[in-house]
Amino acid sequence: MDAAISAAASGPAPATDAPPYMSVQRVQKIYETAGGAVEAVSLADFSVTSGEFVAVLGPSGCGKSTLMMMIGGLETTSAGHIRVDGTEVTAPRGDFGYVFQDATLLPWKSVLDNVLFPIRLEHGRTRDHLDRARELLELVGLWDFRDKRPRQLSGGMRQRVAICRGLINDPKLLLMDEPFSALDAISRDDMNAALADLWDRYHKTAIFITHSIREAVYLADRVLVMSRRPSVISHDVRIPFPRPRRMEMQETAEFNEICGFLRRKIEEGYQRA
Amino acid sequence: MTAIDTGARKKPLLPTGVLAGTLRQILLPVAAALVVLVAWETAVRVLDVSPVLLPPPSMIVARLQELFFPLLLKHAIPTIWESVIAFAVSSVLGIALAGLLSSSKILREALYPNVVLFQLIPKIALAPLFIVWLGIGSQSRLAFSVFISFFPVVIATLAGLDNVDRDLLRLCRALRASEWQTFREVRLPHAIPYVFSGMKIATTFAIIGVIVGEFITSQAGLGYLILFASAQAETALILAAILVLCAFGLVFYGLVAIAETVTRNRFGA
Ligand SMILES: Nc1ncnc2c1ncn2[C@@H]1O[C@H](COP(=O)(O)OP(=O)(O)O)[C@@H](O)[C@H]1O
Ligand SMILES: [Mg+2]
């Protein structure tokens, strides 16, 4: 059973001559702290093709955030290389969009101004991007809330605003670090559906960090399982479902089979540790 | 049953609720002040205290009515004017210095401990020095007033600029904001409530600075008037002048509080 899924679902990306859109090559991260060196990521090695939605799934503390920060140029690597779109990542880039675990909205700005904040920082002219902001906010059902302040919104609404902000400058790569983990199960389902919709429309390359197996399988084209000790990508699983993804998909036997498969792989990782 | 349960069931002494709460917040202090005033008036009359020692409130009010236009207002104007200028200068200087300290690590390490140390000095003792340096004109009073009122602005503003959520700073980094953009777009708006709390303290300090300066040198101003009246044993006039000073202090503070509300609504902080 496992073997069948594993054969169908995992395996390296199809070989092509073109270099991958993103490659993470033998990357390691060691934090030097007062209490000694902490190895947050032991070895990460994978590549992502353009337009792919890749979920990184693992228990908390396994180094997922650190990996994302390195890809996003917010954290240096201790060893190895990360290349995106042909160039090595050394600092945050304009063709990246970021969504963090906390929405991190500016409390003194309206929803609309928060979404336009990256544009304002870039060149100050936000008017040209009003249409796009409107389109994004309408897609996540928040256009009517554009003049509200973040504190007037629920946690799920705030996170949707943060996603719109991540997409406003039309990034090629969207990096999301557990964007829904602070939400309750029901809003989380809503958010997943909203994100899947955004995806069908914009087809960005995405790295989506999560510790929810179902979320990963529902959203991603590929799931990278990360283990804790050592902190490595232990499995690379292809998710075969067609798009657009539907919530009902989660009730199919195949969906649950893949979830079960991933769960066992994560548990194996625990036992090894 | 836990102790907390029984504690929570205790009946409150006074009515509760939002409206009752607001009413209480206004009524209680006013009532307390009235009680003190009435006790004062009665005690002074019953015990037949000399008005030089302590005039009754009614006499102070009479003095105020009688002398407001001919005397008190004339002396209030320079005091008010100088306090407002000193306050404005110390606000601008204070915010600028705090901005400088928060943006340069070296400057901050060099200056901040000194600022804190200076804050602890009884600065009033330095007033005569300002006269030595700047003479007896209004510039020495202004300088002294700025000197004592700008510390609270610096310290509060710096706290606000530094207290920014690390996640927001990471966002700025991700969006490749420059230091200046991070300051203008995130640190400064975040610091607004802190800045105003410093400025509210500065209103009082600015007035104190000017009054102390007037005690030492001036030929006009409420501080001068108070000193003059005390030489004449005109206690009621002293207290009337202080009343005018209080009224000005309240209005000044109130204006800053209004400015805060306007700014906060504008920036929504
Ligand atoms: N800035 C840091 N300094 C020191 N150790 C860190 C830092 N950030 C994360 N770590 C450590 O690295 C490990 C991985 O953390 P993290 O990447 O946040 O994991 P995850 O996102 O999977 O929960 C943890 O042990 C954490 O304590
Ligand atoms: Mg994390």
From TrEMBL, chain A:
Chain coiled-coil ranges: none
Gene Ontology molecular function terms on file: ATP binding
UniProt KW keywords: ATP-binding, Nucleotide-binding, Transport
Location of the ABC transporter domain: 25-253
InterPro entries named among the record's database cross-references: AAA+_ATPase, ABC_transporter-like_ATP-bd, ABC_transporter-like_CS, ABC_transporter_ATP-bind, P-loop_NTPase
Xref: Pfam families: ABC_tran
Domain of life: Bacteria
SUPFAM superfamilies: P-loop containing nucleoside triphosphate hydrolases
Family listed: Belongs to the ABC transporter superfamily.
Protein name: ABC transporter ATP-binding protein
Species of provenance: Rhodoplanes tepidamans (Rhodoplanes cryptolactis)
Classification of source organism: Bacteria, Pseudomonadati, Pseudomonadota, Alphaproteobacteria, Hyphomicrobiales
From TrEMBL, chain B:
Keyword flag Magnesium: no
Spans through the membrane: 12-40, 80-103, 115-136, 142-161, 194-216, 236-259
Entry keyword annotation includes DNA damage: no
ABC transmembrane type-1 domain residues: 76-256
Subcellular location: Cell membrane
Keywords for this protein: Cell membrane, Membrane, Transmembrane, Transmembrane helix, Transport
Alphabetized InterPro entries for the sequence: MetI-like (IPR000515), MetI-like_sf (IPR035906)
Gene3D superfamilies: MetI-like (1.10.3720.10)
Membrane topology: Multi-pass membrane protein
Family in the record: Belongs to the binding-protein-dependent transport system permease family.
PANTHER family: ABC TRANSPORTER PERMEASE PROTEIN HI_0355-RELATED (PTHR30151:SF20), ALKANE SULFONATE ABC TRANSPORTER-RELATED, MEMBRANE SUBUNIT (PTHR30151)
Protein name per its UniProtKB record: ABC transporter permease
Species per Swiss-Prot/TrEMBL record: Rhodoplanes tepidamans
Lineage of producing organism: Bacteria, Pseudomonadati, Pseudomonadota, Alphaproteobacteria, Hyphomicrobiales
